[in-house]
Design a protein that fits this description.
Number of strands: 2
Strand content: 5-15%
Radius of gyration: 14 Å
Largest sheet: 2 strands, antiparallel
Distance between the termini: 24 Å
Order of helices and strands: EEHHHH
Shape: globular
Amino acid sequence: MGLEKSTIIVLKKNDVYTKSDAIKKILLELPNYKILGIIMFIIPKRVSNWFYDMFSKYRNSIPLPNSCEVPEKNVRNKFLD
């Protein structure tokens, strides 16, 4: 597939989604962000992948809070070790 190691990958059943398609799949599963996933269907894949690439390239320079949420045990169980 030739992906960079920092590319997001979502596996769902036997399907593999990368870049903006992966983000779209994630957003469609999150109740509060589902509308963003739906909106992404009207954006051409080439455009949404360009935005993904730009965000990915500069994400470390985006100022964010110096803390992160520690997920509850029922949420941690959904992560791979």
